[in-house]
Amino acid sequence: MLVEVSIDLWSPYKSLVEDLTPNAKITADSFHVMKQVNYELDRMRKTEKKAVMS
């Protein structure tokens, strides 16, 4: 039986899922993926702006 789990990939969550269901397919949930993407884009935008302004 295939089990799929969508979680925040914080290591304690991932470790728990791996311990409880070792054959599960783990997928990052879209909310946390997009949160990280937006964070990185904002960080790069600020870095670029600072470089242009100086």
TrEMBL record:
<dbReference type="InterPro" id="IPR002560">
    <property type="entry name" value="Transposase_DDE"/>
</dbReference>
<dbReference type="Pfam" id="PF01610">
    <property type="entry name" value="DDE_Tnp_ISL3"/>
</dbReference>
<protein>
    <recommendedName>
        <fullName>Transposase IS204/IS1001/IS1096/IS1165 DDE domain-containing protein</fullName>
    </recommendedName>
</protein>
<feature type="domain" description="Transposase IS204/IS1001/IS1096/IS1165 DDE">
    <location>
        <begin position="4"/>
        <end position="51"/>
    </location>
</feature>
